[in-house]
Amino acid sequence: MSFIHQKSLTAGDWLNYMVLGLIALASLFPFLYVVSLSFTDPSTYTPLKFYLLPDKWSLASYRSILSTNSFLDSLKSTAFITLTGTVLNLAVTFTMAYGLTKKWVLGRNFFLGVVLVTLFFNAGIIPHYLLVKQMGLLNSYWSLIWPSLTNAWSLIVVKSFMESIHPELEDSAKIDGCSDLGVFAKIVLPLSMPAVAAFTLFFAVQHWNTYFNALIYISDTKKWTLQVLIKQLVIEADASGISQSGSTDETMVPQETIRMASIVLAMLPILLVYPFLQKYFAKGVMLGSVKG
After folding, report:
1. What residues does each domain of the chain span?
2. 57 strand-pairing partners
3. Other Cβ atoms within 10 Å of 247 Cβ, number
4. Coiled-coil segments, which residues (predicted)?
5. Quick one: pLDDT at residue 109?
6. Terminal-to-terminal C-alpha distance of the chain
7. Contact by Cβ (8 Å): 194, 283
8. DSSP string across 102-123
9. Mean pLDDT for the chain?
């Protein structure tokens, strides 16, 4: 019979747990406040009051914001950028990384060197803006997609992940008559699903939270992303951009609760997707960072 001896907690351990618990609660309170205020009934809302739980629950703020043209336009824009950008990011990153793993590819070292250079050096905002302008992408959704199809860090991690796959698997597939594209599609890609899941989350969050580039390249308010619209509402306290539905009931809803509802709606899709990809998240990154 084996006995498991558990280490008793010291006073220092209890102190660490208490401090970490307080930090966790302090981080949780702002989120609870935003959610609580977004569900607060307009008739019971009091300015400058802290709402841990609403005095009276209501969906009025969500009905109001979902009936406005500006929010629906920004939601459509962000959804298109996220879905299209994520698919293209995955396609470019994984195909290019696979090519960089093959020593017989012509110019492999040159392209690998170019990738490594971009990891340490960045041209800056102005050259990037001029490039987007010369490509004719200003005020277009593609200005937020084409210039960032991949990045050096993602390529290096995925390349290392693919190099950890036993080459004998590829050799056996080629003996069976598979082409290089067939090997990639039928052998390498299925074995890389943990990395695919992890980078799907990376790219999706990146595109969903697009703010700075959208602020620079998109001038048409109908093409604003959610983050730009929320900035307009929360930071600049401009409620005019969210009151375009013409609803008479909308004027009865406090603008503060509408702002909080818009923040919750912006966070919700990522919060719903993350649990399904979380189990692949750490595994995909760790396997891609160690070759063995």
Report:
1. 59-292
2. 40
3. 14
4. none
5. 87
6. 37
7. yes
8. -TTSTTHHHHHHHHHHHHH---
9. 82
